[in-house]
Task: structure prediction
Amino acid sequence: MKQGQWVLALAGGVGGAKLAFGLQHLLRRQLVVAVNTADDFEHLGLHISPDLDTVMYTLAGVSNKIQGWGLEGETWSFMDQIGRIGGPSWFKLGDRDLATHVLRTQRLADGASLTSVTRELCASYGVAANILPMTDSLVRTVVGSEDQKIPFQEYFVRLACEPVVETIEFYGAKFASVNEELKRAKPGKPAAIIFCPSNPYLSIDPILSIPGFRDWLKSLGAPLIAVSPIVSGMAIKGPAAKIMRELGYEVSALGVAEHYRGLIDGIVIDSSDGHLQEEIEERGVAVRVENTIMKSDADRIGLAEKCLAFGSSLAAR
Ligand code: FO1
Result:
């Protein structure tokens, strides 16, 4: 990568944040992360932005490494008390994490945009990369199951992803617009655009559902790379495999490549899925086979290096 070049990453929650951490280590301020906000919701009068917070805490090095979401060293007095006095306790808000939600909610009520609040919070947590919500418009994921329309966090947390997914809708998406600050974040062409190993259906699709987002990505003229969150037919974390099965798609890195076909130039698949390389390449998508399981910071940085090298090789073609 040439000096001064920047990279755009698209991310949802935990899996995406891990690769974004590795990319930030290599790129610092030259990394822009567009984050899914369709998981956001109002809870106990607070505006919760789970994916923005997961990416922010991870890049700040203060995330709870076991859960993947929330803060390390968290305490739960608020939750205990809410439960004791009959409030909803299915969505866990830690005492320290609560400060982020309260401040965000208050700033939004003052008229600040989610983009501005995110910038302020990232600055206070000492994040080097530029983390931006995909849009400042309201977009909400709703899961359809057996004639029910289930708001995302109810499906994901309260119902523990048990309902069979028949449809996934992004309410408000058609009225939303791409975050203007995202479009203006850096001048010129990025060295690569990377779809982090986030859930394609629940984390990346909401971003791509915003009118003009796909065209904007294409217009940047950079190699577009996805990292498969499906390894050996299973999701590294979360319900991606279950959802693919329920929606009738092949649960494999090939299924992920098919999903992004027409948009991506290349895909990074795990070493255990090397046998899929030829089949994916036959579909016009370049393949890089690497270890994609990120257990340590070194794994995250290593995979980020591989993604950047893959981007350079695709740009040189
Ligand atoms: N995930 C859970 O599985 N249970 C929770 O109680 C929970 C609380 C929570 C609070 C703040 C936050 O930023 C994230 C939280 N998450 C929780 C994670 C969140 O539901 C998911 O990471 C995403 O929305 C999916 O990417």
Notes: The chain has one domain: 7-315.
